[in-house]
Predict the 3D structure of the following.
Amino acid sequence: MNVTELLRLLQAEHDETAARADYLREQIERLTGALAEVEARLAEIVTTGKVIDGLTLPDHEPAPAETATVYQQIVTAFNEHPGQVFRVRDLHELLGLPADEPSINLTRSRLGRLVRQGLLDQPGRGRYQKRT
């Protein structure tokens, strides 16, 4: 087998692998978009449940609220304040989350994911707001 044939085989394998990578990237993009839509809808449902619980008459015992995930709490906060720009620490204060550094970093990571999913914008370093 000569060098030319080895290079041709290597190029063929490269092309197949690159095509597979492109296909997987497209799948990830579709799934990421679908996940963002479902998470936003879930946050809307949680918010609706809270509104309905707030409208119950005093003589009725309100249904126990399920604990929302932190992602749901974050999305709900941005939905309730669509024009506001939040810093991570401000968001923690609003949501009553711990203000220790590991918690702040975890929320920063979550916000980055929501930006990549298209739910939030990052108008400046360390600032986040609902995408309009």
Remarks:
- Strands lie at 86-87, 120-124, 127-130.
